[in-house]
Amino acid sequence: MKAQHTIARLLAGSTALSCLFAAPLLAQNLVQDLAQDDTVALGTITLEVAGAGAVGDVGNPFTLSGMKTATEITDVPQSVTVVGRETFGKQQVRKVDQALLDVAGVQSQLYGYDSDTNWFYIRGFASSDTGAFMDGLSLFSYGFGTFYIDPFLLERIEVLKGPASMLYGASSPGGLVNYVSRLPDGSEGTTLSFSANSESQARASVEGSGTNGDDLAWRYGIQATRQDGYGMFDAGFEGVAYGAVTKSFDDGSKLTFHLSYTDMDEDHVGGSFLPYYGTAAPGPFGYFDEYYNGGNPDADTYKRKQLIATGIYRRDIGEWQMVDTFRVGYTDLKELYLYPNGFTSGQIPTPSADVNRFVFAHDSYATILQNDLRFTRDFDTGSVRHKVLFGLDARQYRLDQQQAFAVGTPLDPVNPVYSVAQPTALFTYIDNVSTQRQLGLYAQDQIEWGDGWIATLNGRFDVVWSEMDNNLGADLKRRDDAFTWRVALAKRIGDVTPYVTVGTYFNPQSLSEYSLRAEPETGHQAEVGVKWALSENSLITVSAFDITRKDVSQNYVNGGNFDSNTLGKVRSKGIEVEANVALNEELRLRMAATRMDVTIEKFTGNSAFDGKTPQSVAERFGNLQLAWSPAAVEGLELRAGTRYLGSSWADNANTLKVGDAWLYDIGASWNFAETWTADLNVTNLTNERYTASCQTSFGVSACWQGEGRVVTLGVSTRF
Known about the structure:
With 719 residues, the protein is mainly β. The protein has a single domain (2-718), classed as Maltoporin, Chain A. The chain has 4 helices and 38 strands. The protein has a 22-stranded antiparallel β-barrel. It has a 5-stranded mixed sheet with strand order 5-11-12-9-10. Strands 6-7-8 form a 3-stranded antiparallel sheet, with no helix packed on it. The radius of gyration is 25 Å and the shape is globular. The termini are far apart.
């Protein structure tokens, strides 16, 4: 308990220190720092949103994700992609991971269309759990204690590729996705939007923004979605609402507060957890129908209630600029469903085999408490310019969870009958309260000298306390600490900026009886690249990387118990090319291509896996899109593109291959009246049948069908 009390005091101390400056609400809503572009003036109130505001057609916008200070993408010594609301709004994306399909290095929607979770791998590593951030603060998740973010809440989505522990502490080696909230920007007006798609989903929303006098700006939004299609048994509901306010004070300080609430009540989609044969390869019956649902209408529940409150307080203290970010939130998630688990005849189906099913239920309640206090200052030492950053970052994640299962009845793969009653008495195999607390102290120096030279130095020290109060076994505790760093060098040569960077990361095994036995994951990355801002609204990035991930942990079954097995080492190296280029006043090209070599270099306990590619990882993928805005038709944009998803493996032994796929998309946006806009999009135009990914657990392979053709039409008006 001593460690618990110590970190609790440190959390309280950090928060109290912040409160001395932040006054009443302690606020946040995005690591908004100072920068001159993206500034909206409202009399005596100035909303500084560099790195957090609208992206528009700017090719090299300011970002906060790579440095925690407002920095142009070309000056960040790692590959960074910023996707603005203008882009994913036109595409009518339903989920964040759909907006990430066009980002180099990011393998997105690995589990097809999953209506309640955003899934993504970055540079070959699963990153949804420890690589999801919002406004610069971690949305850490474990088990089913996840936080779901709807694109409606966001102004932009930023992807920082490669290790980021030197700024953010424990996190994924592949990188992070930072969700940037919609904030007050000084605009005034109301927007109404309506959309529907060919999967019987319908959505309506209202957003409003305005000002109150010279020192207050606000924004709000409400969205309601009828969730249907994709093999769901019954239509469901998702509601999202947010409100934000920014207050400017006489001493020049500014306080922003943002509150969001999400409510979901729906059934599960189909096309999930299907056996390898019948999905990625034909079975005796051929293939499963599109969005084949292996669940059961009478045992299908998904309910989420989620609240996130974020604040940011900014002020100058002498020559220092202070930014304090604070968040509290909870997610309450209850779920019951049946999922397929291979065939009654085993991995390979016989002609008469049915689909095995398990009944699964969980009740998960997760809370987060976070505070990130940082100070920046610019100064010169002779002819050398410095921008220094010092920060103290504290966070706590707590998960109270129960998980239970039973063996359900088999289901015919061709003619499923859902009227058979399912077991109601489930065996509880997890019942615990897990807590992870992290405290980190970090520093950064951005150094500029000579004719365009830029050096970036980072260092951070973290202590992480993990513990589990186990109602079904022994309680467990663990303490980990690590020092992580980054050293980078870049050179501006006109519009071209080559760079080289080396950095380390760590990511503790956390919150599980099994993973608490394992050492924290550690590793390092070397990256070289070049960024070319060939015009104000164009940017090309080419990067090559080499990431080594050590002490990777994986659970396996041993005599009916779950044990932790340290795989040893996984290495990911590759090259990414990304372009967002205005070819002329009418044509814009967007392109992303990724080529990787991801290898298990050491698999403890089974050397047969050494040299193999980890399951689910696609090593080749990319996309190309052309957008045409003909001068003859004002306000019209026509889009056409193609996406390629390379092959992957359903098992670490690389014996079950998942084929590749070419997909085609078209779209159009038209401002057909002064205040009216229509967006039409067709994804997977040819309705290509493909498998998003597969994986093998405990000897049984599970696959996820890729999303079929979807036609979406949206109309909005502003007044």
